[in-house]
Design goal:
There is one protein chain. By secondary structure, the protein is of the alpha/beta class. The protein has a single domain (about 55-240), classed as Glycerol-3-phosphate (1)-acyltransferase. It is built from eight helices and seven strands; from the N terminus they run ααββαβαβαβαβαβα. The chain has helices spanning about 1-30, 35-50, 80-90, 105-115, 125-140, 165-170, 185, 220-230; strands at about 55-60, 70-75, 95-100, 115-120, 145, 175-180, 200-205. β3 (about 95-100), α4 (about 105-115) and β4 form a beta-alpha-beta unit. The longest helix is centred in the N-terminal third of the chain and has 30 residues, at about 1-30.
Length: about 250
């Protein structure tokens, strides 16, 4: 049964990426409406969750203030975090994503068309330029999603945070919306298997963390506050330690 579910998911992933990727590109070319193209991403997320037999329990939607621009910050347990955030978070947003994803044929072009922002973590200068671009978008009213850990966890346990997303929040002076994702690691671990294990992802939206009047000097305190806000809604075995370190961009 898992083999059938796995085959169904990867087939859906391929077909939905091609069809909805093309649709997003065409929508932007014809209408210049990135918000409409974002709906293709939302459908893409929900279709792949359905194909994998994954359900999402979402809590804390009341913490989202309509019309407010946010830095949405989530822990990163696995691939399915992306599907869950896209499919279930009721906010118009763009991704700050690693540059390698933008090199994928069609998929990368669709991401650029929708307005997602690449970040090259291997090049500090380019990374800082990307953060400046993202901060300007946020100040203009576009919410951005970040993974403060920088990459997926190997074992589902919360990792230390990198400073890039925190600097973005401080530069934008917009609130951070913490999102705790629990259970997605079990569906498709980062290493060891390509087999899908259907299950439930629990996603909790915490209370916004204000950043107005904060400066770079407040970076470490804000980083720790965000990490604790995410950690408090994870299972004990997912939460990791209570301290965080500066790990660069």
């Amino acid at each position: 049964m898992r083999a059938v579910r796995t085959a169904t998911f990867y087939l859906m992933l391929l077909v939905s990426t091609v069809i909805l990727g093309v649709a997003a590109i065409v929508i932007v070319l014809l209408t210049r409406r990135q918000d409409w193209a974002h709906l293709c991403g939302r459908l893409w997320g929900n279709l792949n969750l359905w194909a994998a037999g994954v359900k999402v329990q979402l809590q804390g939607v009341e913490n989202i203030e309509p019309g407010t621009t946010y830095i949405l910050a989530a822990n990163h347990q696995g691939w399915f975090d992306i599907f869950a955030i896209l499919g279930k978070i009721p906010v118009q947003f763009r991704w700050l994503a690693k540059e390698e994803l933008f090199r994928i044929p069609l998929f990368g072009h669709a991401m650029r068309s929708i307005g997602y922002i690449p970040i090259d973590r291997a090049d500090r200068r380019k990374a800082l330029e990307s953060l400046a671009t993202a901060a300007e978008q946020v100040r203009r009213g576009t919410s951005i999603v970040i993974f403060p850990e920088g990459t997926r966890s190997l074992d589902g346990v919360l990792q230390n945070f990198k400073k890039g997303g925190i600097l973005l929040a401080i530069r934008s002076q917009q609130p951070i919306l913490p999102i705790s994702i629990s259970g997605s690691h079990k569906i498709l671990p980062k290493k060891g298997t390509i087999m899908i294990r259907p299950g439930t992802i629990r996603m909790t939206i915490g209370k916004p963390i204000p950043t107005r009047q904060l400066t770079v000097k407040d970076r470490d305190l804000l980083m720790e506050r965000l990490r604790e806000a995410i950690r408090m809604h994870l299972l004990k075995e997912e939460g990791g330690g209570s301290t965080t370190r500066d790990r660069g961009l």
